Amino acid sequence: MAKVVPPKDRDGFEIAIICALQSEADAVDALFDKYWDEDGDRYGKAPGDTNTYTTGAVGCHNVVLAHMPGMGKGSAASVASNFRVSFGRIRLALVVGICGGVPFLVDGEEILLGDVIISTGVIQYDFGRQLPDRFVRKDTLEDNLGRPNTEIRGFLSKLSGLRSRKRLGQNTFGFLQKLCKEADFEKAQYPGPTEDRLYERSYRHKHHVLPSCTICTRCEKKGDDVCETALESSCSDLKCHDDKLVQRQRLPMSSDGAKAAGAQKPRIHFGLIASGDMVMKSGEDRDEIALREKIIGFEMEGAGVWDNFPCVVIKGVCDYADSHKNKKWQGYAAAAAAACMKAFLKEWVPSMNSSANAIFQGM
Question: How high is the pLDDT of residue 2?
Answer without folding.
Answer: 45
